[in-house]
Structures are given as structure tokens and as C-alpha cells.
């Protein structure tokens, strides 16, 4: 095997987006100078917890953090999904912080995802679990995500600093995605096929057509 090439980044900004995009594109990354000049340098508790969540739903994921937490070396694995998974979220952020990237990861897994998250269900910083259940999930359905396997069940509520909340998130893997460009009359449908040899997903356009504007909206 050849030497792994890492994309180098700096700072703590857009941490979730960096991890998510690195995982979906199978791009190893190194993030340096994470809050290096702060009084409390390095990764925060919820960021470390997010890394553990990515490890939970992936296989062969490699995470290396230096002693001060100011340097992260991350090599994505294969998104596996799986049933009866459990993750205890750090109580410094609510579950919305974890659910937003998790919803995307789960769609591209090799197996359907069923995971129980424990921690804080609501706080002023992140989307509440109610907003994600009542709004975000419905938006995903508009893009072809099957509604039969898409569910977010709130089993207990919890607030900081004690936590105690529990939600059960279920997702089927995505086989096709419908994309409608803004202010157009066309739609496109894409299929997804995992490539085990590279750990990535192959995207193929399988259809397109006109949007029927005369249909009744319910």
C-alpha cells in the first residue's frame, strides 16, 4: 500500500463540516493549531464526542489527537451503519449538534442505521430534536429518502448539566436521490453504489424529467 496523503487544515472553525466532508470523500485530514492561542487550547468535549460518534458508525476509522488536543489526525473509514448502536453525547452541546452530520452519514452507510443517542435534547445553541424530527426529516423525504425507514423517536428529554435525554434515530441507506435545481422545471435522479475497494460511493445519474406543475399540492 502507498503512503497516505493528508489534506492539511488549520483552526477549529467548521469542525463538523470538515469531518463530514472528509468522511464522505474518503479524504484523510490533519487539523493543526486547534485553539492553540486560547486559555483552554485544543478540542472541546463535544468535538471529541463527535469523533467517537464517527468511529461508532464507521469501520477502520483512525483518530489521533496530540496531548494538548491542538492537532488532529483523521483517516476516515467505511461508513457501516448498523443496528442497536449507542452513543453518549457530551453534555456541552445538545443532540442536534450530533444529529445533523449523523443524518447525512447514515444515508451513505453500507447498512441501515439504528442508533440511540443519550444526553441533552434541547439547548439555545443547536437545533432541538423536535425541529429535526418535524422539519429536517421532512426535507430529507423531498429528496427521495425513504420515509418508511426514517424516524427520530424522542424517548426521554434532558437538559444541561445533568442530561438524561434519549432519542432513537433510524435511517435506511440511500439508493437514489432526487435533485431539483432552484427555479427550474426539471428534476434529476441519482443512484448510489458503494465501492468496497476504495471505501467511497459512486454517484450515477439514472434519470431526469419535467416537474408536473399542474398537480395539486396537499
UniProtKB/TrEMBL annotation:
GO molecular function, one term: RNA endonuclease activity
InterPro entries: RNA3'_phos_cyclase_dom, RNA3'_phos_cyclase_dom_sf, RNA3'_term_phos_cyc, RNA3'_term_phos_cycl-like_CS, RNA3'P_cycl/enolpyr_Trfase_a/b
RNA 3'-terminal phosphate cyclase domain boundaries: 9-172
GO cellular-component term (any): nucleolus
Highest taxon, organism lineage: Eukaryota
Record-level GO BP terms: endonucleolytic cleavage of tricistronic rRNA transcript (SSU-rRNA, 5.8S rRNA, LSU-rRNA)
One Pfam family named in its UniProt record: RTC
UniProt cross-references to PANTHER family, sorted A to Z: RNA 3' TERMINAL PHOSPHATE CYCLASE (PTHR11096), RNA 3'-TERMINAL PHOSPHATE CYCLASE DOMAIN-CONTAINING PROTEIN (PTHR11096:SF2)
Full protein name: RNA 3'-terminal phosphate cyclase domain-containing protein
Amino acid at each position: 500500500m502507498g503512503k497516505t496523503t493528508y489534506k492539511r487544515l488549520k483552526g477549529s472553525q467548521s469542525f463538523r463540516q470538515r469531518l463530514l466532508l472528509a468522511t464522505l470523500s474518503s479524504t484523510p485530514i490533519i487539523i493543526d493549531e486547534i485553539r492553540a492561542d486560547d486559555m483552554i487550547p485544543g478540542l472541546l468535549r463535544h468535538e471529541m464526542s463527535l469523533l467517537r460518534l464517527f468511529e461508532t458508525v464507521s469501520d477502520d476509522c483512525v483518530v489521533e489527537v496530540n496531548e494538548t488536543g491542538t492537532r488532529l489526525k483523521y483517516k476516515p473509514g467505511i461508513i457501516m451503519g448498523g443496528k442497536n448502536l449507542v452513543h453518549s453525547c457530551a453534555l456541552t452541546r445538545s443532540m442536534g449538534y450530533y444529529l445533523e452530520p449523523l443524518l447525512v452519514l447514515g444515508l451513505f452507510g453500507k447498512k441501515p442505521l439504528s442508533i440511540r443517542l443519550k444526553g441533552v435534547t434541547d439547548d439555545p445553541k443547536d437545533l432541538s430534536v423536535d425541529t429535526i424530527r418535524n422539519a429536517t426529516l421532512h426535507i430529507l423525504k423531498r429528496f427521495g429518502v425513504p420515509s418508511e425507514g426514517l424516524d427520530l423517536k424522542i424517548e426521554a428529554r434532558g437538559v444541561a448539566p445533568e442530561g438524561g435525554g434519549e432519542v432513537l434515530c433510524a435511517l435506511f441507506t440511500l439508493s437514489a436521490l432526487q435533485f431539483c435545481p432552484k427555479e427550474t422545471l426539471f428534476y434529476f435522479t441519482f443512484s448510489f453504489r458503494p465501492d468496497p475497494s476504495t471505501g467511497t460511493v459512486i454517484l450515477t445519474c439514472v434519470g431526469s424529467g419535467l416537474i408536473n406543475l399542474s398537480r395539486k399540492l396537499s
